[in-house]
UniProtKB/TrEMBL annotation:
ABC transmembrane type-1 domain: residues covered: 72-256
Subcellular location: Cell membrane
Gene3D superfamilies documented for this protein: MetI-like (1.10.3720.10)
Pfam families named among the record's database cross-references: BPD_transp_1 (PF00528)
Topology with respect to the bilayer: Multi-pass membrane protein
Family, as annotated: Belongs to the binding-protein-dependent transport system permease family.
Position of the signal peptide: none
Keywords in alphabetical order: Cell membrane, Membrane, Transmembrane, Transmembrane helix, Transport
Principal subcellular localization: membrane
Transmembrane segments: 79-101, 113-131, 137-157, 187-214, 234-252
Protein name: ABC transporter permease
Length: 272
């Protein structure tokens, strides 16, 4: 039996990835040039949109301030803790719900009722319960990210080959052995998709909590810059949140590729 490599193999994939990176960099440079030109040519007021060079100078000033790094650390702390709790709870709940007889059907309506509720709608509850501390951020982050992971776990376990599961039962594999050798390998690609989505959603909710509630972090620092009319600093901090989001997404994708190195979708190979 021979293997065929899809679309020319890994070398083609690497060249395509490099080409996409170049195009992405070109697009970013074009966007920065546009932001530089619009206020200088008088199309928009510099009070509303400063030139990109002014924003870059403000970013350098921010990075020289110890309070900036403290705020960044606060944001990442809320993001990481919330994401960890959500992943742990989502995987555990999803597995238990999937393997316990009739539990999936019994909880389906509850999941469908709670899942569409926007996390921002819980802001008054978070403030009422925890004030403006870290726990308010965690409540919003965990609630938003939990559903991303849970739903993917449920779909992943549901996609398990029934023949493989029945074979495992016929060989006398216990519940834990079936989870480890049958359910988990099937669900893992779904789980990693959920984790990647949850990582992005967690950052969005962490920043939102800081903006609205005032918990310490980049969001609160953006609010201070906005109220004090430090417009270049505000845009610089917004750019930092975007950069953090890009890095988080890249890191999540790297973890996904490493965890699924054995999977066909990552290897880019098929067996004809």
């Amino acid at each position: 039996m021979t293997r065929a490599v899809v679309n020319g193999g890994p070398s083609v994939v690497r060249r395509r990835g490099a080409g996409n990176a170049v195009l992405g960099l070109a697009g970013l440079c074009g966007f920065l040039a546009l932001v530089e030109a619009l206020p200088r040519l008088g199309f928009v007021s510099p009070d509303h949109l400063p030139p990109s060079t002014d924003i870059a100078a403000a970013l350098v000033d921010e990075m020289s301030d110890a309070a900036f790094w403290t705020a960044l650390g606060d944001t990442l702390t809320g993001w990481a803790l919330g994401l960890f709790i959500a992943i742990t709870a989502g995987i555990t709940t999803g597995m238990v719900t999937s393997i316990v007889p009739y539990l999936r059907e019994a909880t389906a309506s509850t999941v469908e009722f709670l899942r569409p509720i926007p996390s921002v709608a819980l802001i008054p509850l978070a403030v009422l319960l925890f004030g403006t501390g870290l726990r308010s951020t965690l409540l919003l982050v965990v609630y938003a990210a939990f559903w991303q992971v849970l739903v993917q776990v449920l779909y992943g376990v549901q996609d398990t080959d029934p023949v493989a599961e029945e074979t495992a039962r016929s060989y006398g594999l216990g519940t834990w052995a079936r989870i480890r050798h049958v359910l988990w390998p099937t669900a893992l690609p779904y789980v990693m998709t959920g984790v990647r989505l949850a990582a992005a959603v967690s950052l969005v909710l962490a920043i939102t909590a800081e903006l609205v509630i005032g918990t310490p972090g980049l969001g609160a620092r953006i609010t201070v810059a906005q109220t004090s009319h430090a417009v270049p600093d505000m845009y610089a901090l917004v750019a930092v949140t975007g950069l953090v989001g890009v890095l988080i997404n890249a890191g999540a994708r790297a973890v996904e590729r490493r965890s699924l190195a054995w999977h066909q979708s990552v290897r880019g190979e098929v067996t004809p």
